[in-house]
Amino acid sequence: MSSVDFTWLIGGPQGSGVESGANIFSKVCAEMGYQIFGKREFYSNIKGEHSYFTVRVSDQQIRSNVNDVTLMVSFDAETIFRHFNEVSSNGGIIYDSELEDVNTEGVRSLDSPFKERLHKYLESKNKPFTIGGVLEIAKEKGVNLYPVSFKKILENLAQETDNPKLRSLIRMYNVIGVSLSLGLIKMPSDSLFRSIDTIFSKKRQIAEINKQAANYSYNYASKFENFDHSLTGTTKEPHTILVQGHYGTSIGKMVAGCRFQSYYPITPASDESDYLESHQILEVQNNRPGSTAVIQTEDEISAIGMMIGAALTGTRSSTSTSGPGFALMTEAIGWAGINEVPIVITLYQRSGPSTGLPTRHGQDDLLFAVHAGAGDFPKIVYASGDIEESFYDTGRCFNYADVFQIPVIHMMDKFLSSSVVTCKRFDPNKITIDRGKLLDKVEGEYKRFAFTDDGISPRSRLGLDNGIFWNTGDESDEYGHISEDPVERIKMMDKRMSRLDLALKRIPDEEQVISFGAHKHTIISWGSTKGPILDAISMLKKEGIDMGFIQIKLIHPFPTDLVKSLLKDTKIIIDIEANHSGQLGQIFKQNVLKDINYSILKYSGRGMTSTEIFDSLKKIVENKADKREVLSHGA
Amino acid sequence: MALKLADYKTDVHNDWCPGCGDFGIVNALQMALAEMGIERDKATIFSGIGCSGKTSHFINTYGVHTLHGRVLTFAQGGKLANPEMTVVAVGGDGDGLGIGAGHFVAAGRRNVDMTYIIFDNGVYGLTKGQASPTLKLGEQTKSLASPNTNYDVNPIGLAVASGFTFVARGYSYDVRHLKDLIIKAVKHKGLAFLDVLQPCPTYNDINTRDWYAGVDLAQESIERHSRIYKLEDTQFDPLVHYDDEVEVNEKLSQALIKSLEWGTKIPIGVFYQNELISPYSIRLKDQIPNYLENPPAKQKISENGLPITNVSKILDSLEV
């Protein structure tokens, strides 16, 4: 058992500082040596709709959220209505006491399906439809309630500091909420003040006011009693970093030498491009500064077109998008395929179809990525399981693209992008750069698409001396000129398609699939389910249950033989994915010619928790599960 | 060794219809490249889809035959990554003003230093003669089942409104004049647009070579005359001389008004030129001071297979 396993939840209307509150909390806990797994949920909305952030804190490695919340802090009514039942029996709720009489009709952003469910529940418990009503339920369950008048805190603070302006500064409710929480759990306060300083480093005055509020609230809450949980700090792992979801691929791109990124704004992918642009000038060892040209285009078609144009000059080029944008790129992916252009598309998936749940999680686009584009052409589809992995995988993706001269689609998702986690400091020295057959000079006659033994032709780049070539989306001859000759056509198709086998042969096994052990029961999965699966497996282990797990990273071409050999002693195969149809399962069946025994799927738009995976796995082991377990936790 | 016109020709079989206006454009482009002495491996011709899309295969420089409507996107990406290259994009009016119209407008706003030539013939030739964006409302070319139901796009007007900083029109049968226009366009600092009137002898039986030559007007006048006239032979001054709102607006307006002239008199030549608007490369340079000396395509990213980008400061800031 880990000695500390604590989940904190903060909620409020979008735009009220929930995210910065959570950032302060995470930073403080991380500085005090804890491991963090934070997760943000929000509506497709700028201001007003409910957003919340859960931060799980532990002194052991954690890779996921759990269902139970230990401490919830809220300065609005909606958070309480939506989350009161998640707080565990000896947990706590810090809430604004001014809200006790608010009823569900008073919260306009509560949607009717939710309200109906809540009303039915409250009726069954014989409680009024008010904050007071739901809090009674929590109290009966054993949750500690900490009513605080946020308004009074500001008033008292204004009086104490002789600064009447503070009275109306409700923007500080988030900092007050965080500080109350930290006071309650007895976290040393210096780190709190440092974090506030960092976050408001450009606004000294605001930092000061916030620190006063923080100090006041912290002391206020430390007077509360009866809370079983305290987080007073633990031994810090050296070289721990606190990162947001897109940092892995962003910093990975800088290190891998991506120097051109074109993009069109889309959630949740554009954070990466914004980050690259705000760190556009790059320090380069023994060299003048480098830079990433980050170009915002008129649409995703232009983003991929520009990126291909840039890649043809020999520049490592990329774009980052999500499902709907990726859909617009498919024609050009085929063009890159037939022209053997190395490009990397970072695909931050979200819930589809169409606009779907634009700010919610889903692993909906695996089959789409594998099949994107008209016609038969080779590509690589590669999936990262967590943020740390995504840093190193970004380096690999650029190498695959260069070495095999094909488009690479790097699968990421919203679960990863809106996580905030602690992990080991990225090590750039573990990234290698292999540009394959990219030429620095050309001598003699040059044929861009020359037939070679390994099916890969030396690659010139636009502007290189004597390296003239042609490209066309039509079938072509070795020079790149249009050819409709049936014999050449067969040779060209075979040449391009041979890359798939070549990739399987040359990419090391450990980059294709990670085996966390195979047992009688073994999970197959891909992407961001990795964290909650590993945590669920540890939970099972504590109950004496062995569960295997094969994380498939290279999804196309599919490493059939490797997967088969890893699963040779497995009797029960369990597919876990955040989509409706079990897309990896379909690819698995098609290639391995074996059935999936159980599927654990989630398509509510919310990420999986280790708790719910654990519950389903346990049912499977006990032979009580449905063939298709559908998960639904999360507001 | 000085390059000759022949050096810019490939031996790829040209399968355009006999009498096609495209020949004039590809000749003018090759002549322009030769006259400017641009090294073959320092130029890239990007092309769209359709008959005009094949252009890049006939010119002995780097040639990138892209996707329908997307030629400007590929070309801009190439130029931004390697700004030392001379970039010319070509495509049909359907390609650039139909499927690619969004990119046309966005490219104007960006003003990347390159040239875009539209082969403007009013029909989709390669798909057998459907109406294209520049065909006039109510006109019925040979293979149309009924008269065209859409109003025509004004390419010059659209270019001027979208921010192109060099806007001109040429005629594919006046190859020398067209060659001179291409040279001006390539030398222009910013995005240059050339609308080239190009009869399609197979599918456009309205705007034919004879029509442009004014043969139908000949009976009314003793002297057979052409519909086409050159702006430079008139008092028309397309150049924005100083950075002043009144001056710019006047030059934009006169270009737009001139672009509406059609029928018995059709102007060719430069309609508008403004070098006072910064090309995109300069805007990038404001963000990345050494962008032009060390553009994406020239940057060193590794040594002995290892990365040389130093991200320690970023990682330090993330350490807890």
From TrEMBL, chain A:
Domain Pyruvate flavodoxin/ferredoxin oxidoreductase pyrimidine binding: 252-493
The keyword Ribonucleoprotein is assigned to this record: no
Protein keywords: Oxidoreductase, Pyruvate
Single GO term (MF): oxidoreductase activity, acting on the aldehyde or oxo group of donors
InterPro entries: 2-oxoacid/accept_OxRdtase_asu, 2-oxoacid_Fdx_oxidoreductase, PFOR_II, Pyruvate:ferred/Flavod_OxRd, Pyrv/ketoisovalerate_OxRed_cat, Pyrv_Fd/Flavodoxin_OxRdtase_N, Pyrv_flavodox_OxRed_cen, THDP-binding
Ranges of residues in domain Pyruvate/ketoisovalerate oxidoreductase catalytic: 15-218
Domain Pyruvate:ferredoxin oxidoreductase core span(s) in chain numbering: 522-589
Transmembrane segments: none
Protein name, as recorded: 2-oxoacid:acceptor oxidoreductase subunit alpha
Organism: Marine Group I thaumarchaeote
From TrEMBL, chain B:
Listed Pfam families: PFO_beta_C, TPP_enzyme_C
GO-annotated biological processes: cellular respiration; organic acid metabolic process; sulfur compound biosynthetic process
Keyword terms: Iron, Iron-sulfur, Magnesium, Metal-binding, Oxidoreductase, Thiamine pyrophosphate
InterPro entries: 2-oxoacid:Fd_oxidored_beta, 2-oxoacid:Fd_oxidoreductase, OFOB, PFO_beta_C, THDP-binding, TPP_enzyme_TPP-bd
The keyword Oxidoreductase is assigned to this record: yes
Domain called Pyruvate ferredoxin oxidoreductase beta subunit C-terminal: residue spans: 200-284
Cofactor: thiamine diphosphate; [4Fe-4S] cluster; Mg(2+)
Entry superkingdom: Archaea
Signal found in the keyword field: no
Gene Ontology MF term list: iron-sulfur cluster binding; metal ion binding; oxidoreductase activity, acting on the aldehyde or oxo group of donors, iron-sulfur protein as acceptor; thiamine pyrophosphate binding
Annotated TM spans: none
Record domain Thiamine pyrophosphate enzyme TPP-binding: where: 49-196
Name the UniProt record assigns to this protein: 2-oxoacid:ferredoxin oxidoreductase subunit beta
Organism for this UniProt entry: Marine Group I thaumarchaeote
